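fyi for ur records
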Amino acid sequence: MWKGRFAQDTSSLVQQFGESISYDWRLFPHDIAGSIAHARAQKNAGLLTEEEFNSIESGLLGIKADIETGKFEFKTSLEDIHMNIEAELTKRIGPAGAKLHTARSRNDQVATDTRLYSRHEAGELIGALSLLQAALVGQAEKHAATVVPGYTHLQRGQPVTVGHHLLAYVEMLERDKSRLADAAKRLNVSPLGSGALAGSTINLDRRAIAAELGFDGVTTNSMDAIADRDYIAEILFAVSLCGIHLSRLSEDLILWCSAEFGFVTLSAAHTTGSSLMPQKKNPDVCELTRGKTGRLVGNLMNLLVAVKGLPLTYNRDLQEDKPPLFDSIDTLKMILAVNTEMIAAMEIRTERCKAAASDPMLLATDLADWLVKQGVPFRHAHELVGKAVAESVKTGVPLDQLDLTAIDPAYTADANSVFNLERALAARTNPGAPSVENVKAQVERWK
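which gave:
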């Protein structure tokens, strides 16, 4: 494509080193859509006849069909998806194909393609996130009243319900969806028409092209339009943070399905065995989700480091934006799909949850609250409950069976009435608290 300037063919090693067709081929539907919109603007500007435009459009749609059915042969010598399509178009329809690149550079072409791709995939991920949320809400509905310890520092803290715990992840995933939607909104401006960096003396109707491609408007600085990869960084950040949320969910489930916790049983379809130990049932989906999160975060770092020292405008380094983008999208899609299936199929072992939640220490804070209601300052109430806990640990007598009146006169005979799990949960009625009624209301809201 640059043979007019160079008298020597590009080294085959350089061709191998510089090609991107091995991964950017997947941009083909967006590249073709952008080319058709560009050609229509050329026709409207009098640069193409109606016949030439029709020939270009039908030729591009034919190439698209061949790629979709696996009949198209991609050539490394043509470097990227843009030149592979353009060369094949010219081969098929003749001189009209060679006119297509008028008033366009591969720089604004790839910026357009990746914006279209990112917008589409953000929508796909939002849909996949909704499916995982639905699976979590389904389990939360079944177990809105299944009491389980809530933990801080992996130590039992206060009572919650399984439904409340799972809905915490629904909240996180909703924020992930919001971030993706926000990024998709911000990226939805067309750079096509910015040329290599300074536009073109052949002025096509950029707004008409943008409208045809579903953009909300056009970029307003040609140099920024070519150099900008913020939108990819935003998508990769949203994806990596979503991965971190899913990794935390995985860690909870890994703990919960261990023999020590025993709160959850994962289905045989979503676990694996051991090549040596016949008794093993391993939570591989959770572990792989946790492991692949590092990949998602690494892809974000890959892009940020690639861009951080680049002068305006286009530099070949920017070719390295697509592998991390494609890999992160593919990885998160698979994580979401398999976790949705696994969550929907898992079983909560209510008897183990009940046994863990029956620990009276979970209501130690409730006992302090009871003292506060009797007029004891909280710091003193905290100290008095601490003394009761120490006595329980020392004597081996469960906290709810101690004679609390013997510890301090602030305790009265009815202090032990605090140790009623059902009543303790029911009292947590503030917005966001885990009363069963609150959890059920949240389930209905999410549904």
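Residues 107-355 form a domain with the Fumarase C; Chain A, domain 2 fold (CATH 1.20.200.10). thats all i got for now
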